[in-house]
Amino acid sequence: MPNLLSMNNLENDTIMSLLERAGEFQRGERAPIDGTVVNLFFEPSTRTKMSFEMAEHHMGLAVLPFETAFSSILKGETLYDTVKTMEAIGVGAVIIRHEEEAYYQQLEGCNVAIINGGDGSGQHPTQSLLDLMTIYQEFGRIKGVHVTIVGDIAHSRVAKSNAAALKQLGAHVSFICPEEWSGDYESSEHLDDFIETTDVVMMLRVQHERHAVSALFSKENYHEQYGLTVEREKRMKDGAIIMHPAPINRGVEIADCLVECERSRIFKQMANGVFVRMAVLEYALKGRD
Ligand code: CP
């Protein structure tokens, strides 16, 4: 049964096939499958959880409710035993968001499809796919598009998933962040050097819950140095777009008034998320050439 754990091991043909299928769902095609799925979210989520639920609803899948606060996880049950239980009762796929990076390594031996809804600072493959769909729809290609990813690269599963997939598909990727947040990536601290030439400015959320940002920056200071300010947006080239996976710290990584400006594709990304997740659910439940 195919899993979707990371963008690192997904071939270009598989990525493009998922994007194509997502486009078919967007144009109203119905999914010819049935099955039972469970959304296991151990970390907070609005977009990923709700858009999986919407995708499942559109596909007519049976969705078993699961609330961490009312599960035997609270009695110390392991993630492995929780997922094995889903398998035993006949669930076909589980969507998991978990704070532990690569949590899925402990699930080897579970005969149920696993879709990663985000693992700590590791990967967020369905976010990456919806970002790729948005870029592809905008430019008609991924190859050669210049994407500048700005913010907390080291802690961002969105940045890591997108960096792998975009480079593999031939995009030109630049990283802008404070030196402390660059992780393994070669980066610059100067967004101003890139703002006039990039096709996509992809802002990342400052992750207050994963580290003490306030020790490094005030909100105003961060916005001024690394944020998409009104002044910077004016210098973006014709046709360039703004993306952000959300949730957004308005006024920190992006000026409040730019969130819904003409260049912004932030809510388009969220809309695309439903169709991408339909394609991923079909891929996981059925497999697809
Ligand atoms: N983009 C994203 O993963 O949002 P949520 O944390 O709300 O799911």
Automatic annotation (TrEMBL):
Residues 143-283 form the Aspartate/ornithine carbamoyltransferase Asp/Orn-binding domain. Residues 3-137 form the Aspartate/ornithine carbamoyltransferase carbamoyl-P binding domain. Coiled coil: none annotated. Its EC number is 2.1.3.2. L-aspartate binds at residues 75, 157, 205. One of its GO terms (biological process) is 'de novo' UMP biosynthetic process. Heterododecamer (2C3:3R2) of six catalytic PyrB chains organized as two trimers (C3), and six regulatory PyrI chains organized as three dimers (R2). Catalyzes the condensation of carbamoyl phosphate and aspartate to form carbamoyl aspartate and inorganic phosphate, the committed step in the de novo pyrimidine nucleotide biosynthesis pathway. This is Aspartate carbamoyltransferase. It comes from Planococcus donghaensis.
